[in-house]
């Protein structure tokens, strides 16, 4: 059995590896392989077990080896191949896709990422409008992470224009960050209060 895992969510991929291979398996670095190594990996026996459990990491960049994998799809061993990204246009990928299971584990992209920076920009002029915008995305956000994004935007502003107002905004955000991590007040109320005050700092 060969199974290929791809994508940038390594946590989910790791769970699938553990589910399939358990916690005790061989690890092979794909970049170090030569085509001549493949028979011993896919067909070689183990002294202790008839079926070996093998994880091969990042082999697709090693074209000479990746192109040979199709020859070993009937391996008696459990082999998982972990790749960050696969070239879906490559002929080796297309051929493997017909014969082996390929699972993609991708991190969910934050749809509100750009909107967070818009909220900060708007709050500098109109705190009420910024709070209305925040209300629309609160259910999909985490307050401390949201504060971190506000801080990163404030730092960019300060780098562009290191004025007194930008410095005060950073000072207030540093206090807000501590409050979010140490008080029992509603984190969203604290964030809304900051957005309402920002234009008058």
Structural write-up:
The chain is an alpha/beta fold. Helices cover 50% and strands 12% of the residues. It has a five-stranded parallel sheet, sandwiched between helices. α6 packs antiparallel against α9 and α8 runs antiparallel to α9. The termini are far apart. 19% of the residues are buried. The mean pLDDT is 91.
Q: Roughly how many Å is the radius of gyration? A: 25 Å
Tally of alpha and pi helices: 9
The total beta strand count reads 5
Q: Strand-residue fraction?
A: 5-15%
Overall 3D shape: elongated
If strands are numbered along the chain, what order do they take across the biggest sheet? 2-3-4-1-5
Distance between the termini: 63 Å
Q: What's the SSE pattern?
A: EHEHEHEHEHHHHH
The description of the largest β-sheet is: 5 strands, parallel
Helix content: 40-55%
Low-confidence stretches: none
What's the rounded overall pLDDT mean?
91
- Provide the structure class: alpha/beta
């Amino acid at each position: 059995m060969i199974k290929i895992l791809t994508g940038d969510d390594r946590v989910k991929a790791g769970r699938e590896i553990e589910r399939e291979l358990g916690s005790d398996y061989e690890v092979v670095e794909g970049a170090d392989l030569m085509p001549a190594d493949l028979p011993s990996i896919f067909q070689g026996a183990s002294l202790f077990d008839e079926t070996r459990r093998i994880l091969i990491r990042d082999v697709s960049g090693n074209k000479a080896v990746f192109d040979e994998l199709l020859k070993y799809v009937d391996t008696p061993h459990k082999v998982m191949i972990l790749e960050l990204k696969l070239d879906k246009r490559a002929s080796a990928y297309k051929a493997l896709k017909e014969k082996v299971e390929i699972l993609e584990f991708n991190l969910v992209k934050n749809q509100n990422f750009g909107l967070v920076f818009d909220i900060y920009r708007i709050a500098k002029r109109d705190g009420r409008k910024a709070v209305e915008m925040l209300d629309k995305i609160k259910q999909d956000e985490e307050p401390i992470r949201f504060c971190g994004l506000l801080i990163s935007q404030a730092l960019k502003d300060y780098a562009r224009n290191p004025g007194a107002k930008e410095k005060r905004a950073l000072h207030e955000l540093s206090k807000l960050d501590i409050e979010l991590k140490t008080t029992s007040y509603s984190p969203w109320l604290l964030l809304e209060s900051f957005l309402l005050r920002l234009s008058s700092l």
